[in-house]
Amino acid sequence: MACGKCVFTLAVWTAVWGLTQGQTPKASDEVCAACHDIGAKLKKSAHAGVGCATCHARHEEYPHPEGVAKPQCGQCHAREAAEYASSIHGQEKAKGNAAAADCNFCHGTAHELTPTKTFEFRKTVPDTCGTCHEGPASQFRGSIHGKLLAQGAGQAPTCATCHGAHIIQKPISPQSKVNPLHVVETCGGCHDGLVLTKRFGRAGTPVESYKESFHGLALKAGQPTVASCASCHGYHDILPSSDPRSHINPRNIAKTCGACHPGAGKEFQIGLVHVIDPKQKAPAVRWAEWFYLMLIPGTIGVMLLHHGGDFVRKVAWLRFRQQAWALSYRPAPTEGELRMLFWERIQHAVLTVSFLVLVITGFALHYPNAWWASPLLHWERTWPVRGTIHRCAAVVLLASSLLHVVLLIRVRMLRDRWKHFFPRASDLREAYEGTMWRLGLRKDQPYRSPHSYIEKAEYWAVVWGTVVMAATGTMLWLNNWMLQHVPKWGIDLARTIHFYEAVLATLAILVWHFYMVIFDPEVYPLDPAWLTGRSPRRQAHQEADDASA
Predict the structure, then answer these.
(1) Residue 346 is part of a domain; what is its CATH number?
(2) pLDDT at 546 over 60
(3) Which of 203, 378, 430, 520 is most buried, most CB within 10 Å of its CB?
(4) HEC states along 472-539?
(5) Is the pTM of this model over 0.90?
(6) Could you give the C-alpha distances from 545 to 236, 449, 542, in angstroms and in order?
(7) DSSP collapsed to 3 states, 405-434
(8) Measured between alpha carbons, how far is 184 from 226 in angstroms, rounded to an integer?
(9) In terms of domains, do 233 and 369 share one?
């Protein structure tokens, strides 16, 4: 047994001796320091813990052979080296531009480079970049960012914060951090966090308010020409609004906005752009929001209550009182009552298509990240698909509305029919009695006019909604003219009303109209009046005619 152990040990030592043959032991750093006086420099360097043998090949041969390649940073920093190679600096270096910045230019020599995470290194970045980019570096030093850095603010941005450290690209490059499509994300690295929010005592962040604005929504959809943070605040010469030289100083804001909106702010002060605290919104905007936040739930709630009761009442009659239902709701004549004339059906078709397109494209403008909006955003960078289609549909809707008015004036038959849509005092009684019946608070079904409060409410809601949407939509469409003649809160008010009115109109169609033409047990699965002009619905006045006969 002991002999076996001796054999095993001898075999192991033999293998180790064989592997080490031909290898020269690595010299220690002290041996190198005997000739190379770099010890003091290396102790303060980021490479202080890295041995000489790690970087220097064939160091153990003395005298050192000639032609040995210098150590490459990529030996240890492969990721950074790959990023540098793809950057604008690396590409210039590959083309033979000896003046292009490289590792040593920015970091210093390997034996005395300063650790990049220290403030000592960060504060030298503008000067380093300024060696080649003096103009931008000079502007940066005079900016709010440069002044904070000079004052010792460790979190103040440097050139590398915005442009990147190793993978610096041209601003037109899609990968660049300062590409128009990425500027908000880059600025948001500091201005969208809680640190600055708490430091300056703000209720929100300017980046958050920008993302909710027209510009932010357009940029989110991929439109690189829309205004971003840099468009208004500047690039390297960013200054607080209190500075007379600032692009966003009240004296300069008209010129800044006028770069995209000619004449903006000449007659009226543009006003607050970033609304961080809801209390900062213009009173008119706050009142409009409050009005619709009360109106929409109340209106839709009444609609759901009205039609919900109607549905329950009719289904109950069908299920439990079939004989009574047969007496009260006898099928209409085979051909049905004529409810829509030819021109009315044409107007309805145009209205339906234009309304659906307006809803889809309008909400796609407001919610560009929604899955159903992605097909419209496919070509958005080359052509404003959503906005163009939305405006075209709006023109079609207005044209159909104008056609409706013209036909009412020119066609007597239509005019006589549509006289029934004027509100009457009896509509209040019918609405009260009809609602009581639907809620089960009235036993007998009340009389309902051929064009009752149900049809009248829907018709005049369409008229009102069309007028409001056309007015506010035109204001948003003519935004340059608006900024010349009204304060910015006027556009904010128009945008608020336009959005909430669209929400109200969409929900009203889904709840009120779709029930009447689809889910109402009297016509389910569909009232074909919009196609054939005739409806199978048995009207109360038909019941009275049958009884008198």
Answers:
(1) 1.20.950.20
(2) no
(3) 430
(4) HHHHHHCHHHHHHHCCHHHHHHHHHHHHHHHHHHHHHHHHHHHHHHHHCCCCCCCCCHHHHCEECCCC
(5) no
(6) 82, 13, 5
(7) HHHHHHCHHHHHHHHHHCCCCHHHHHHHHH
(8) 12
(9) no
